Amino acid sequence: MNTKTFLITGGAGFIGSAVVRELIQNTSHKVVNVDKLTYAGNLESLASVETSERYTFTQADICDAAAMQQLFEKHQPDVVMHLAAESHVDRSIDGPAEFIQTNVVGTAVLLEAARAYWNSLEGERRDAFRFHHISTDEVYGDLEGTEDLFTEETSYAPSSPYSASKASSDHLVRAWQRTYGMPTLVTNCSNNYGPFHFPEKLIPLMILNALAGKALPVYGDGQQIRDWLYVEDHARALIKVATEGQVGETYNIGGHNEKANLTVVETLCDLLQELVPQETSYRDLITFVTDRPGHDVRYAIDASKIERELGWIPEETFETGLRKTVQWYLANETWWKRVQDGSYQGQRLGNV
């Protein structure tokens, strides 16, 4: 395998840190991690790789054009994997402007920095350069039927400020490929879960609330259906797309695990009852709350293209992945308690 330098934006986030760990632990590639370190960025998720000679961290904002230009000039990446994004739907409803700034403006700034750098390359290095944009299945809106699946040709119909901002960034990436010939790839994934997940998201929130004896809030009737993808499976898929995918193509990545939100919470309760038994059922903590505005009913990914063309299939079922996730949170109390009390944010800073 030819050793490449990967520039990962958002590499201190949940999915980004999984990609960084996978690259450092299981390949010979070099990684340059650039992250603004907002509330969702956590360098403690990278403790297992931070001493590697093949790993470099820089704190910078993708909206900072000068910083992005400097990064490209200094590190000369072969592959850009763009994961930096605001990604929490509820937060986007409360404050959409930040999502537009990071997800739309930031992507445009990064694309321009990458284009200038790519234009400076020659020969094989120019031909081999890739810009991989990581997106979400939420850009497609929701599915009306129980059998329909999102494919790479599904029309966009975003419902929230978050998904609209991600749809915008997807369009920008494809426009840079069409207009300037930039070698881009786009992936759209289903809901990720697994170790190092920020506790505001559904699965870690339910695990930690249940352990604390707190209510487990479920929106509406809990029948919203999502496809669940174990984050380490996703990381392997992303690297495969970045290194083997066809320029200009889109690949949907899913876990083949469609579950209603209520089913997810009930399964978590039953797992916790097995692993941390208590006299009363964890299910008694489930509380139904008012549904959020514009809540999509069903997402489901058709991942046959990436399976057929690149040979990727998820290694974890929902049952095996969820068990690993619960066991990880039980074994890593220090990590999530430092997130809960905010002490994780006193992190060292890197330099460009």
Automatic annotation (TrEMBL):
Keywords: Lyase, NAD
Any single Pfam family the record assigns to this protein: GDP_Man_Dehyd
One example GO MF annotation: dTDP-glucose 4,6-dehydratase activity
Keyword set includes Membrane: no
EC number, as in UniProt: 4.2.1.46
Cofactor(s) recorded in Swiss-Prot or TrEMBL: NAD(+)
InterPro entries: dTDP_Gluc_deHydtase, NAD(P)-bd_dom, NAD(P)-bd_dom_sf
GO BP field: nucleotide-sugar metabolic process
Protein name according to UniProt: dTDP-glucose 4,6-dehydratase
